[in-house]
Predict the structure of Isochorismatase family protein.
Amino acid sequence: MALTTLDANTALIIVDLQKGIIGLVPDTHSMGDVIKRSRALADAFRERGLPVVLVNVVGGAPGRTEQPPRQSGPRPQGWADLIPELNQQPGDIVVTKRTWGVFASTDLEAQLKALGVTQVVVTGVATGTGVEATARQAYEAGFNVTLALDAMADPRSQAHDYSIRNVFPRLGEMGTTQEIIELLRNRSA
């Protein structure tokens, strides 16, 4: 669904742009552009006093173990650190998750609803896992969902394309970083 509007109290959620993950995405999605666009969105939301949520992941959800972990042993020092390009600010909400989506294992839903947030814009990596799971969970929690398509990437290009073509249109509106920033500007003009 094309981008039409942003609610008065919309939050930005940036998923898993952390040191240990961004290097896993091949340059086919130009991680540099994804990072720049996520930062541009964060700056635009901060300028308007809207919540910015920075999410990192530190493990996996408990459960079935038929598939071996993608990484065995301890993760390197700084693996879960948010990348400095996001320019983390004291007012940002920082959430650490252990599942694909941020709402399933954290109190983010309660935090956002306490702030009166009714809509979320989601960016980050990986499109077919962390971003998609977060968008699905936000939708299921009753938030209006917007996806910044040019501010997300996935190391699996087929998963990225599938989410954009088949899943995201059912969850909410989609647009570019620039379209979202324009809607923010027009709203505050």
User: Anything to note?
Assistant: The CA atoms of residues 56 and 110 lie 18 Å apart. Residues 10-59+79-188 form a domain with the Rossmann fold fold (CATH 3.40.50.850).
